[in-house]
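Title: Prediction job returns without error message
Component: structure pipeline
Severity: low
Priority: P3
Assignee: unassigned

Description:
Job completed but the reporter wants confirmation the result is attached to the right record. Sequence as submitted:
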Amino acid sequence: MRRRFAGMARDRGAVAVVVALCLVVILGAAALAIDAGSLWSTRRAMVSATDSAALAAAGRLVNASCDSTGAQTQAANHLATNEPSSTLDSFQFTPYRGVCTTGAGKVTVVGSMPAQLTVAPALGISSVSAEARSTAEYGPLKSVDRLRPIGVCAQDEHIQEWVAAGGDPQNPVYRADPDDLAVTALYPGAASVVHRVTFTKQLASACGNSAGNWGWLDFNPPAGGDSQLGGWLRTGYDGSVSTGDQVGGQTGANSATRRALDTIKCPATTPTANCIQFPIVIYDNATGVGNNVEYHDVGFVGLVLRGYQPVTGDPNLVSSFDFEFTTYTAEGTIGGTATGLLPPLKGLHLCGGGYAATVDDSLCDLP
């Protein structure tokens, strides 16, 4: 009898060992399922945060090309705002060709944040951090995203004023034109000059032989149309257009066009900083008529739409836009150069996309 009880005791001891081993396996599996999921989620959040921080730093440098200290502060602030428990581990500023005054370069932000662990502490793993690394570049754009389907002739007097001002809306001479002052007075929220740009041909020799040179653009001919025009006016073209491209035209301009313009028009008393800003195309030549017009793109300008009169499809009526040109920073492909016709639009570009590609600096356009 005693021998039987002794055997049972040994069996219970063996079972206890097996249970303990199984418990370790179960806890390990739970840690893998629960805590690995938490680590993945934290990693996703960190990539979004470092992406935002890198773009913020690049945005600082595009307007203050040598202020690396300010750019790092901007990155740290964005990281802390998006993920308060994160840490800025490193910040790297690389100006193009090693010279900050070129107005182009890239920044790399590396950050980390502890993941919330549920089961792993029971296995002796007290903390695990998720790290993310994002690079953004800045500089003059050679292609621009989210363009609105509006083109203006490079020889238009208001475009020429903007060129003469070097793209600086605070230029004293630029701000002193009497005609512009009269229009600007209609919009007390404007931070700078508001131009009444006639949406037709100013000079017989201006921008090619197309009658009127209206400038309603079709980025995807021949699949365009009024509905597509309205969609692009509201949210921008979902592709890129480069300097030197030939852009199609369309007649456009009806009640749906005006309703679309109303969605992006900024009220007269709204400050410029609170308005929708967007880029449009500047062209130097147009050939063809109506939907068969092709516009040669020589650059872009960022602006705020303050008003329009009356914008119809009838070439016998004089239509115009009230545009406030701005130092708008667009997204697109970096690497543009001055054409002599227009100051290049400044821009930002996140090198890569998605949660893995953002770590790949080779996806930057700049070397």
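Comment from assignee: result matches the submitted record. Confidence is low (pLDDT under 50) at residues 353-360.
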